[in-house]
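tokens incoming
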């Protein structure tokens, strides 16, 4: 495919790929996509245990939590420009507020500006398609879900592909209909009320929950081999991340998620992808990681679409 224009990599795909089901394309994603916006001077979020919220006054405590909560440096637009097409939404309604914010240890941006950035970028790139995965909600009730779905559909509604059998969705069809967004939403009532929302079970995303690289790779390969590929196949996210355990933070409180776990893990993930076993290729779909700015991760993932054995 020659030199890849990462901001337009879907637009420039050869015809053989645009007719493929989207669940058979290999697509880069970001884990905890919007943690670049976390407010380290604000309170510990209500997504965290009460004991953490109650001791956030301790000198240095917020700094530790912040260093172990940030998973991305790139902004929304920078991620899009660099090829990210899957976004991991984790949201909370802060106590005593009528707002919805990104959450991971701390609160981050309100949802409105993030969606506005998406709208602006998609308007400039009308043949690029993104996946929104709304998979964690904290302090949400039915009114909060309505607030979020009203904002989402109000800003992006005409661009949102209605839910259907995943195998029946490809880029050609998306382009013809003017769709650019597939939104997966982990609330059955909201999904039932809005055909633009996909049930969360149509996005399989097995989680290794390990801080050991060797266990992670073994788990990823095992889950890929178990991925169903028939008519009822779903979208599938390979989570290329390590999860810090309490002991990691306690023993390395002076360090950070980026330095201690994420950087070596993303590097190992890229090496693994470049040397992947050929029989795994048809089983890849979405691959996400922490710090997508590192080690040419996004380009490596996109190039897997064109590589039979190795990817450089």
């Amino acid at each position: 495919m020659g030199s890849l224009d990462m901001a337009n990599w879907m637009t420039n795909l050869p015809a053989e790929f645009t007719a493929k089901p989207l669940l058979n394309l290999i697509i880069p994603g970001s884990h905890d996509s919007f943690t670049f916006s976390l407010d380290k001077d604000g309170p510990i979020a209500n997504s965290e245990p009460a004991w953490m919220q109650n001791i956030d006054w301790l000198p240095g405590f917020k700094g530790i939590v912040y260093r172990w909560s940030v998973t991305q440096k790139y902004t929304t637009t920078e991620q899009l420009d660099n090829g990210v097409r899957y976004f991991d939404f984790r949201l909370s309604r802060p106590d005593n507020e009528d707002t919805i914010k990104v959450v991971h240890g701390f609160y981050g941006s309100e949802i409105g500006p993030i969606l506005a950035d998406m709208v602006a970028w998609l308007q400039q790139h009308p043949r690029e398609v993104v996946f929104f995965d709304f998979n964690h909600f904290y302090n949400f009730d039915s009114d909060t879900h309505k607030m979020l779905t009203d904002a989402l559909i109000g800003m992006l509604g005409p661009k949102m592909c209605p839910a259907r059998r995943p195998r029946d969705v490809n880029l050609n069809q998306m382009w013809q209909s003017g769709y650019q967004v597939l939104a997966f939403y982990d609330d059955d009532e909201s999904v039932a009320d809005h055909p633009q929302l996909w049930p969360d079970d149509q996005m399989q995303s097995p989680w290794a929950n390990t801080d050991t690289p060797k266990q992670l790779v073994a788990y990823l390969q095992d889950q890929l081999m178990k991925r169903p590929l028939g008519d009822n196949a779903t979208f599938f996210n390979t989570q290329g991340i390590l999860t810090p355990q309490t002991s990691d933070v306690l023993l390395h409180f002076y360090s950070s998620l980026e330095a201690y776990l994420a950087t070596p893990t993303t590097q190992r993930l890229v090496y693994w992808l470049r040397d992947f076993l050929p029989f795994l290729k048809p089983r890849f779909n979405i691959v996400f990681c922490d710090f997508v700015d590192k080690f040419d991760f996004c380009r490596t993932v996109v190039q897997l679409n064109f590589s039979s054995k190795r990817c450089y």
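note: The radius of gyration is 19 Å.
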